[in-house]
Each structure stands twice: as C-alpha cells, then as structure tokens.
Design goal:
Layout: E1 2-6, H1 11-22, E2 26-31, E3 46-49, H2 55-65, E4 69-72, H3 79-84, H4 86-106, E5 111-117, H5 140-159, E6 162-168, E7 170-172, H6 190-199, E8 205-208, E9 220-221, E10 223-225, H7 226-243, E11 247-251, E12 257-258, H8 259-270, E13 276-279, E14 288-289, H9 294-300, H10 309-322
Parallel strand pairs: 1-2, 1-4, 2-3, 4-5, 5-6, 6-11, 7-10, 8-13, 9-14
Antiparallel strand pairs: 9-12
Bound molecules: UDP-4-deoxy-4-formamido-beta-L-arabinopyranose.
Length: 325
C-alpha cells in the first residue's frame, strides 16, 4: 500500500517509516523538520518538506502522492508545555489535524493511523488501564489527542475514512538494528534526560518527587520500545485493509518501571554515574500509569517484543554513543 507518513522525520515517525518499508509498503514522508531531522530519512521513501498548517502544500502533497493510507505523527507532545502554552497546541495539534483530515478526504485517503496517547485517560482510576477506562485528560496535550480521536470518529461516520487510534504509553528506546540514531533536541522526557546526565551533557536529573505511593516513591510508567510501536502501526494498516473497520487500542507492556529503575539501569549499561536530585512533584503526574494491552493482542495479534528496560536503555545508550563519534 502507498502510505503518507506525516511527521515521518521524527523520533517515532522515522521508526514507523522503517517498519512500513520493511513490510513492503511504498512510503512518502511529509515533515516540516521543526523537530524531525533529515538524518532520520531513508532514501527509498520520498520526502516533502511542509507544514500541516499549510493546507495548500499539504493538499498538493497528497494529490501528488495519492496514498491509500496515512499516518499522523506530527502533533506536539510535551504535556507540561501544553499547560503553559495551550494556543500552540490548539493550532498545531487540533487545527493541524483537521487540515490533515480534510486533505485526506479531498484526496481519497482510505485509512488513517493516528498516534494517540495514554494521556487521554488522565489519572488512572484502575490499573492496568484498558480502553474502557474513562477518558478524562488532565493536561491540554491529552485533551488535544482525545479531540482528534473524536474528529476521526465523525469522519469515519460521515466520510467512511477508517482509522486506528493507537494510544501509546511511554515511547522509548531506539532501533534494535541501529539504523536510526537521530537524537531529540531539548528533550523533556525522562530517558533522554537521564542519557544526557550520564554523558555529562546535563548537570543532573531532577527527579520529580519520591513520595509517591510506589515501590521506591518515584513515578512508575509503562515504557514501550519504539520498534514495538512501529510494528503496531504496520499491524494496524493490515487490520484496516482487511476489515475496513476503525479501531482504538492501547500499545503498552503491562509492566512498569520507576524513575530510579531507569537511572539504575542506565548506570549499569553505561558504566557512568547518573547525577540526580529529588525535587518537588511535577503537577499533573500520576504515581503510576500502566497499560492493559489485551485488546491489541486479541484484535491485531500485537505484543511487545523489544520493550524490556534493558533493551530500551541499551538501544538508547547506543544511539547517544553513535552521536558522540
Ligand atoms: C516519566 C516519569 C516523571 C522527567 C509523557 C507525555 C507525553 C507522552 C508520554 C506521547 C514521570 C519523571 C520525567 C524528568 C522526572 N508522549 N520525570 N524527571 O509524563 O509519563 O508522559 O510521555 O504520547 O510526552 O505525556 O513522560 O518522560 O515526562 O515522565 O522525574 O526530568 O519520569 O515525573 O514519573 P510522562 P516523562
């Protein structure tokens, strides 16, 4: 199938392009390179530089490439920033996504795979979290993701465009075959921050609270390897093509790791000390957030294969080291 990957030069986008190419799909990437990078592109995937807020170039791209499928990975994802600069998230995530949806309809795209997030659930009322869990996002980023899911439901009903919304838990790791090594610029997520501290590029990791009701007091998350996420996208397209039915699923491992687990694993893998300091909790952080991925296994046959903390930390450290040379 010909698939357009919007945001395909980014961290998750490039891993998804790699997987879809390996599955034999023809890929056209559209990215404004605001956070994505050219080093993440593959020569056997076409590339068009463009912004999802530029409806003219977005429509030109889809008209020219005429894809059957489309992956939308071009949303901003910093939960904290979304609370201090909601306008930026309204424009890029909501207006931008509606531009994509309208351009997809105008150019007869049949299937959309959307990068959604566990942030749609807000603080978990029970664990592990399944897709029946109430969706009450506690940050504006999560609200934009839920809004886009709702737009997709309507466009399914009114335009027959089928979608798969993949609710990622904490995306982490780097390609196990080492084919992708582009590092995120100014990261806010835990693992890249820990890597920078291990390399001495950052003075210390600020640990946002150690008084949570968890095994060591620090926050627990369900870290999912980006290769596993990418495989989920490939399976989602197979599902959409086979059933012509839309789908919402969690992609997670049903196992959790604490902030201190991540720091300890990084020290073990890298042989470096990771300086850290316990500070105040970050507002909006739940103590734990762990996925129930049973539906993805049942409906897609998907399950995490590369998401052990050791593999996640090893592949990430390798990517950081590759940038040192
Ligand atoms: C993980 C844990 C922090 C940084 C994010 C966003 C969004 C989503 C998933 C895609 C928490 C702690 C973190 C630091 C710390 N992405 N932490 N010091 O907040 O679980 O979710 O990723 O959908 O980007 O919702 O990820 O990596 O920020 O935090 O102590 O400098 O690490 O408190 O317990 P989060 P995170």
């Amino acid at each position: 199938m010909k698939i357009a990957v919007i945001g395909g030069a980014g961290y998750i986008g490039s891993h998804t392009v790699r997987e879809l190419l390996d599955r034999g799909h023809e890929i056209a990437v559209y990215d404004n390179l605001s956070s994505g990078m050219e080093q993440n592109l593959f020569e056997n995937a076409s590339f068009t530089k463009g912004d999802i807020l530029d409806t003219y170039s977005l429509n030109q791209f889809l008209e020219k490439e005429a894809p059957e499928g489309l992956v939308h990975l071009a949303a901003f994802k910093a939960a904290g920033e979304s609370m201090t600069n909601p306008e930026k998230y309204s424009v890029n995530n909501i207006t931008g996504s509606l531009n994509i949806l309208n351009a997809a309809c105008a150019n007869k795209v049949k299937y959309i795979v959307f990068s959604s997030s566990a942030a749609v659930y807000g603080s978990p009322q029970y664990m592990p979290v399944d897709e029946k869990h109430p969706t009450s996002p506690e940050n504006y980023y999560g609200y934009t993701k839920l809004s886009i899911e709702n737009f997709l439901q309507w466009y399914d009903k009114l335009r027959g465009i089928r979608f798969a919304a993949l609710r990622y838990f904490n995306a982490a790791g780097y390609d196990v075959k080492g084919r992708i090594t582009g590092l995120e610029k100014n990261p806010a997520n835990l693992i890249p921050v820990v890597m920078e501290a291990a390399e001495g590029k950052r003075k210390e990791v600020l640990v946002f609270g150690n008084d949570y009701d968890t095994k060591d007091g620090t926050g627990i998350r369900d870290y999912i390897h980006v290769n596993d996420l990418a495989i989920g996208h490939g399976m989602a397209f197979d599902y959409l093509q086979k059933t012509n039915k839309s789908l919402i699923v969690n992609l997670g491992t049903q196992s959790g790791a604490s902030v201190l687990d991540i720091i300890n694993a990084t020290e073990k893998v890298s042989g470096k000390k990771v300086p850290y300091r316990i500070v105040e909790r970050r507002p909006g952080d739940p103590a734990s957030l762990i996925a129930n991925p049973a539906k993805a296994k049942e409906v897609l046959g998907w399950e995490a294969k590369y998401s052990s903390i050791e593999t996640i930390i090893k592949t990430t450290w390798n990517a950081y080291q590759a940038n040192e040379k």
